[in-house]
Design a protein that fits this description.
With 97 residues, the chain is mainly β. The chain has a single domain, classed as Translation Initiation Factor IF3 (2-Layer Sandwich), CATH 3.30.110. Helix content is 14%, strand content 64%. It has a 4-stranded mixed sheet, covered by helices on one side.
Amino acid sequence: MPIYLDSYPPRPYDVLGTVYLNDTKVEMGYACGRAKALGADAIIATSKGYGGSASFGGSYTTGNVYPGGFNANNFGAGFSRAMTKMQLVAIKWRKNA
């Protein structure tokens, strides 16, 4: 299915509906499926922007105690990802244009 980003199709069309996405990397397949269910021939991306970020992380500590002292080791990892928002318009080509 054609997706028009930052441009409009070169031929006449009718608007069938709008699909809103919160994370374009994950949901573009969902948007195409919804547009096809509406009978769309193509999608136009009308707006996009930053929707926030998600961060995940964790750590753990190990240690040993022995006579006269102790030692400890700390290990950690983190993950951060930008989230985007997008509004998509499902369109159908006009037959009599």
